Amino acid sequence: MAPQKLAATYRQRFWQTIRLIATDMDGTLTRSGEFTPALLEAIASLRAHGIDVMIVTGRSAGWVSAIVNYLPVVGAIAENGGLYIDKQSGKSTLLSDIPDQAQHRDRLETIFNHLRQRYPSLRPSVDNPYRITDWTFDIDGLTQSDLDWMQAACKTKLMDFTYSTVQCHIKVEKQEKALGLNQVLRQKFPTMTATSIVTVGDSPNDASLFDPDQFPHSVGVANVSDYLSVLAHTPAYITAASEVEGFVELVNQLTKSK
User: Which domain holds residue 148?
Assistant: First the structure.
């Protein structure tokens, strides 16, 4: 089902019950890969209206721990559901079942090298050294056919694969944003219900956040349109603007409804 335009839902009362935005980062909170003053103003406006922000990103634990320290958010899920970093305590909690981390990293590198046999130009992402649960490489130059082959190849190795606007991820099966978010909600925010959360994203690794059975209020910023045909779940609503301007559009709707 095609997403409904966000602006058309302005008068719907459910926006008044939202207490948390669980949002992707790259391509959703950024413009051309960077944070903007508009983002900081939007988060400040949300806090003033009693709405918290949690980042749910594919970026590495190392990068995300720094971001949590500086942004006014309640915490962040990194590596597509791999771990959670709490703002208040500063502690990281592993969300994926990885008994031996060193052995796991070796296995991820072995699978990456397997993919490189067919695609020798693949290069690890700049934040790959700061990762715990997954292995990433840049998506530049890869076609949908290439990505489909990589996903199938990882499946034969009993591993999973996903991608965003910037990176490809090799990870364990059942490691995804929605599973990580639900685990964090149970552990850290037990009074939070699905109807008091809005999930936001822009690319295939956000698809689980668009699952209506788990999160009925999901929003895609306009650039998600490039991926609607390949998403397992599509967002319930879509903004008119792309990237961080789309996020600001959502924030304006939420704060006005309050």
Answer: 101-171
The DSSP result for 152-176, as a single string, is HHHHHTT-EEEE-SSEEEEE-TT--
Q: Tell me which DSSP letter residue 113 carries.
A: H
Nearest to 86 by CA among 95, 96, 74, 78: 74
Residues above pLDDT 70, as percent of the chain: 100
The residue-averaged pLDDT of 48-59 equals 97
Question: DSSP class of residue 198?
Answer: E
Quote the tokens at residue 148: 């489909």
- How many structural domains compose the chain? 2
Examine the domain organization and report whether 84 and 119 are in the same domain.
no
Q: Which two tokens stand for residue 11?
A: 């008068």
Single out the residue in 110, 144, 171 at which a domain terminates: 171
Distance between first and last Cα of the chain: 28
pLDDT band at residue 51 using 50, 70 and 90 as cut-offs: very high
Q: 85, 82, 50, 81: which is closest to 67 by C-alpha?
A: 85
Q: What is the pTM of this model?
A: 0.95
